[in-house]
Amino acid sequence: MLNISTTNEITYDNVPLLNDAMNSFYNLINDFQEDFNIDYSSYDDFVNLPELSQNLDIPSIDNVSEETSTTIDYYGEEYYNAKGYTMMRFLRVSKDYTTVEFGTYCKEQNYSDSSTMTLEARSIDNCYNMVPKNDPDVYYSVYLDDTVAYVYLQSDSDDYIQNDVINNSGSDAHFTLKTTNEGF
């Protein structure tokens, strides 16, 4: 997330691909100005955020350390939807374990659809209900370990989840997401 103050001071959360996105937007705006002979600096109400962000030391995706990241990110395996697009589920857990973003990313359209939810601790360690702000069709819970997130239905009992994770490596989870994913 980028925030810009009235004095054009920029603060940001160190999120994956932020540097790459800002560089792409910077190039896109410059190309657009050149192709259509437009000078955005002559417009008083236009704030060229990508240009302002060029002076920030935003690390590239390869240089984002776990210490500076504000979330722990988990990714599912790639799959294809009915239109043949490459899709991937993702889960971003805040490091203070209060919120989670759960969604799906489409590679071809560079688009994601997600919901931000509150995490509510269950009776077993590392297991949380994901509490949405809306009224979804399905309510999920998540069991987190160091490198894997197992997503279950909230109606599954704590004993069932714990037994599945410990004895079956989470084979009954609806989704299994990992902190490392070769496809992403």
Describe the structure in brief.
With 184 residues, the chain is α+β, with helices and mostly antiparallel strands.
Give the helices and strands, then pairings.
Elements: E1 2-4, E2 10-12, H1 18-36, H2 49-53, E3 71-75, E4 79-80, E5 86-94, E6 99-106, E7 111-121, E8 127-131, E9 140-144, E10 148-153, H3 158-168, E11 175-178
Antiparallel strand pairs: 1-2, 3-5, 4-5, 5-6, 6-7, 7-8, 8-9, 9-10, 10-11
Can you give a write-up of this model?
This protein is of the alpha+beta class. It is 19% helix and 33% strand. The chain has helices at residues 18-36, 49-53, 158-168, and strands spanning 2-4, 10-12, 71-75, 79-80, 86-94, 99-106, 111-121, 127-131, 140-144, 148-153, 175-178. The strands form two sheets. Strands 3, 4, 5, 6, 7, 8, 9, 10 and 11 form a nine-stranded antiparallel sheet that branches. Strands 1-2 form a two-stranded antiparallel ribbon. The longest helix has 19 residues, at 18-36.
Describe the main β-sheet briefly.
Answer: 9 strands, antiparallel
Question: Which spans of ≥5 residues are poorly predicted at pLDDT below 50?
Answer: none
Approximately how much helix is present in the residues? 10-25%
**SSE arrangement, N to C:** EEHHEEEEEEEEHE
Helix-and-strand structural type: alpha+beta
Give the end-to-end Cα distance, rounded to a whole number of Å: 20 Å
Question: What does the radius of gyration come to?
Answer: 20 Å
